[in-house]
Amino acid sequence: MKNFNSKILLAFVVLLMVALLTAGCGGSKEEDKTDGQSSEQEKLKVGFVYIGPVDDNGWTTAHDNARKYLEEKLDYVETSYVENVPENPADAERVITQLVNEGNKIIFTTSFGYMDPTIKVAEKFPDVTFLHCSGYKTAPNVAAYFGRMYQARYLSGIAAGKATKDNLIGYVAAFPIPEVIRGINAFTLGVQKVNPDAKVKVVWTHTWIDAATEKDAAVALLDSGADVIAQHQDSPGPQQAAEAVGKFGVGYNSDMGKMAPKAVLTSPVWNLGPYYVEAVQAIKDGTFDTTPKYGSLTYWGGLADGTIGLAPFGPMVTEETKQLIEQEKQRIVSGEWDVFTGPFKDQQGEVKVPDGQKMTDDEILNMDWFVQGVEGSTK
């Protein structure tokens, strides 16, 4: 009987050990499964640094719309942003570093003045990819991207050249850097395509976004005789100034016709969402290359890929003008011709680009002179 009881006890112990081992193994598998699910659900964090508020109805609104598009198209992405970040190095570096510390593996810095701070922070965080808009410096983990906005500027210049009665168009401009200068030049070439007698008068504000300053500059141009106001500024202030006195204008960045419907002929606009999706997917796949391919830029999209374009025309734009703009657009999209193809002259009347010669990407990106027809200094 004793031996029988011992056998029963031994069997019970063996069964208990097997049960414990089985439970242990089952627990490990469940934990592995849970960990796997957690890993799959973890989002790729993408951060954005903005020069203005997201509701500026201009540059920052365009970038924020692209951010929203990115989140909509890639469900594995989680985005965040910091708005109203000054371009001084201390503030920019602090915010960019903050976004890295918050776990963002991709960071878009969306203003020219963020270039050096982006490069500096990128050196400290080689495992994070940075994409800087409108600058000219790259690194193994820093890309420089922009759009061929000069193409849309040229088309909008045709609308302005057709609309002016007094042959003086005012241009409220931010800073005298190549990005802005080539836009003014392209716009002026468009104006003179349809109205060789018209002039484009430039006033510098030395700010990207300051609605009051921009509006004051537009008022000064209107007072000097301009009857159309163009701009390289982030707010619709210049367009609202034109509307207030019954004049016309050409907006920028986003569709400013919504903010001054009686004035705005059209607006050169940004559509960066598709590029953001393409870039983030490539980074995730490990195929993204920051190497400059277009002069100093990693990416430089244009009318052909839809990165830039024109907002809908206002009711004051004639069908004849719309058709002419469409014809010129198709010449550019097809690759048959581009805006900075000669012949054209500089302000001094000297031939800058001979007939049939096309400026290189480097020459366009480093443009620091005005074409004939522009009134103002590049300083």
UniProtKB/TrEMBL annotation:
Gene3D superfamilies: 3.40.50.2300. PANTHER family: ABC TRANSPORTER SUBSTRATE-BINDING PROTEIN (PTHR43208). PROSITE patterns: PROKAR_LIPOPROTEIN. Keywords: Signal. It comes from the Bacteria. GO terms for cellular component: plasma membrane. The lineage of its organism: Bacteria, Bacillati, Bacillota, Clostridia, Eubacteriales. Residues 1-23 form the signal peptide. The keyword Transferase does not apply. The keyword Signal applies. Residues 44-332 form the ABC transporter substrate-binding protein PnrA-like domain. This is Nucleoside-binding protein. It comes from Desulfotruncus arcticus DSM 17038. Pfam families: Bmp.
